[in-house]
């Protein structure tokens, strides 16, 4: 108890000395208007030692002031005093009251160079002979005097997996620090400087930030969503044609559309080929279906095929020369890639004649035929069968 009493008396003594020195300072620096207090009008006092700093490179100077308020009434005021031992300015302040305890105290700082008042943070209560803060451990407050800055970072266009790396534009304020961009999901997109590289399909949030410096505060971060769509893999079943009684072929399909050096081995799950053919004893056209399959980075575009089991040999047709017919599969017509042919005959896979006639403009009309597989026989002007081809009408 004795040590505390001595500390309180010493603190008050020092503050009294500092207050007397204000008489000299007031000749050069005048305290803000209305910031006056008559200690003789109050019965009780307590002490606070403040240190105020700036977020910017500014600093407290002689002529800056600190005042204590209870309500709207000034209850203490002091100018900044330099302490050579700490090479810093402090505000050792006596606060006065008519009550021994319980009154709420607020503090205001006056920045003389800017002629600005700033309210200091915190809630404080008057207690008789209380010592709050010291030169070695003052009550501290940092003035946020940094200038604001903002970032311009616009919406991002949707991308597709496999797209080339692209640049993003994000401009910041006048601060010296650069705008930094980060990705929330590096499995979708990575960022190096302002270059965004697509890694996979999905969604990532790109956030632009700019830290503060001695003049400007940190900018508010700006985020934009980046959507990366799956690429499309085209998977096409290969058609097969065999004669009745021949061995069933191995079913296969082709794939196109891989990007980023991906291969089928990189797919999460490949599709499977399915057909209901178990024997080649019955002629007909049988569907080969691609089904299933999935991947995080690809959509599948599946084209099914046809396994044709033909009885072409019973027609007595010879495959003496090969003539291209296209498109195959077809929808409306077939085109014959030879001017030397004169007529055609069209058969079902069971050998039934379904159409025949002269070639007109090297074309065969298919639009009226049902969907399915057919055999087309091409003849020259002498009526000789020159070629037989299997075609599919879609």
Blueprint (SSEs and pairs):
Blueprint: H1 2-28, E1 44-54, E2 65-70, E3 73-79, E4 81-83, E5 88-97, E6 101-111, E7 116-119, E8 124-127, E9 131-132, E10 139-143, E11 152-153, E12 159-160, E13 166-167, E14 170-171, E15 180-183, E16 189-192, E17 195-198, E18 202-209, E19 222-229, E20 231-237, E21 240-243, E22 253-256, E23 272-274, E24 284-291, E25 298-303, E26 305-310, E27 325-326, E28 333-336, E29 343-348, E30 353-358, E31 363-365, E32 372-379, E33 385-393
Parallel strand pairs: 1-9, 1-10, 12-19, 20-25, 21-26
Antiparallel strand pairs: 1-5, 2-3, 2-6, 4-5, 6-7, 6-8, 11-14, 13-17, 15-18, 16-17, 18-19, 20-22, 23-24, 24-26, 27-28, 28-31, 29-30, 29-32, 32-33
CA-based shape: rod-shaped
Structural class designation: mainly beta
Which consecutive residue ranges, at least 5 long each, have pLDDT under 50? 1-13, 15-28, 313-321
The main sheet comes to: 5 strands, mixed
Got a strand count? 33
What fraction, in percent, of the residue positions are helical?
under 10%
Written description of the protein model:
The protein has 394 residues and is mostly beta strands. It has 1 helix and 33 strands. Strands 1, 4, 5, 9 and 10 form a 5-stranded mixed beta sheet that branches. Strands 2, 3, 6, 7 and 8 form a 5-stranded antiparallel beta sheet that branches. It is rod-shaped, with a radius of gyration of 45 Å. The chain starts with a helix and ends with a strand. The model is unreliable at 1-13, 15-28 and 313-321 (pLDDT under 50).
């Amino acid at each position: 108890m004795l040590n505390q009493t001595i500390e309180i008396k010493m603190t008050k003594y020092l503050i009294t000395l500092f207050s007397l020195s204000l008489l000299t300072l007031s000749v050069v620096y005048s305290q803000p208007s209305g910031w006056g207090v008559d200690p003789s009008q109050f019965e009780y006092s307590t002490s606070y030692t403040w240190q105020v700093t700036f977020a910017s490179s500014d600093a407290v100077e002689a002529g800056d002031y600190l005042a204590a308020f209870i309500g709207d009434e000034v209850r203490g005021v002091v100018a900044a005093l330099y302490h050579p031992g700490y090479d810093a300015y402090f505000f050792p302040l006596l606060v006065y009251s008519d009550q021994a305890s319980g009154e709420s105290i607020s503090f205001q700082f006056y920045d003389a160079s800017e002629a600005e008042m700033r309210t200091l943070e915190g809630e404080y209560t008057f207690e008789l002979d209380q010592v709050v803060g010291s030169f070695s451990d003052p009550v501290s407050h940092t003035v946020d005097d940094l200038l604001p800055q903002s970032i311009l970072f616009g919406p991002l266009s949707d991308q597709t997996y496999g797209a080339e790396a692209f640049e993003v534009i994000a401009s910041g304020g006048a601060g010296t620090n650069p705008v930094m961009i980060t990705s929330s999901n590096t499995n979708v997109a990575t960022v190096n400087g302002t270059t965004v590289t697509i890694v996979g399909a999905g969604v990532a949030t790109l956030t632009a930030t700019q830290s503060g410096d001695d003049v400007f505060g940190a900018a508010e971060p700006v985020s934009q969503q980046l959507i990366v769509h799956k690429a499309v893999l085209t998977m096409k079943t290969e058609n097969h044609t065999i004669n009745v009684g021949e061995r069933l072929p191995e079913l296969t399909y082709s794939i196109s559309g891989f990007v980023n050096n991906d291969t089928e081995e990189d797919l999460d799950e490949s599709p499977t080929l399915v057909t209901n053919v178990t024997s080649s004893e019955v002629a007909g056209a049988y569907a080969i279906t691609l089904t299933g399959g999935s991947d995080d980075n690809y959509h599948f575009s599946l084209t099914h095929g046809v396994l044709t089991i033909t009885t072409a040999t019973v027609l007595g047709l010879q495959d003496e020369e090969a003539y291209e017919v296209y498109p195959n599969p077809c929808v409306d017509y077939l085109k014959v890639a030879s001017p030397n042919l004169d007529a055609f005959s069209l058969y079902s896979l069971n050998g039934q004649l379904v159409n025949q006639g002269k070639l007109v403009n090297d074309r065969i009309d298919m639009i009226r035929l049902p969907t399915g597989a057919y055999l087309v026989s091409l003849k020259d002007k002498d009526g000789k069968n020159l070629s037989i081809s299997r075609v599919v009408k879609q």
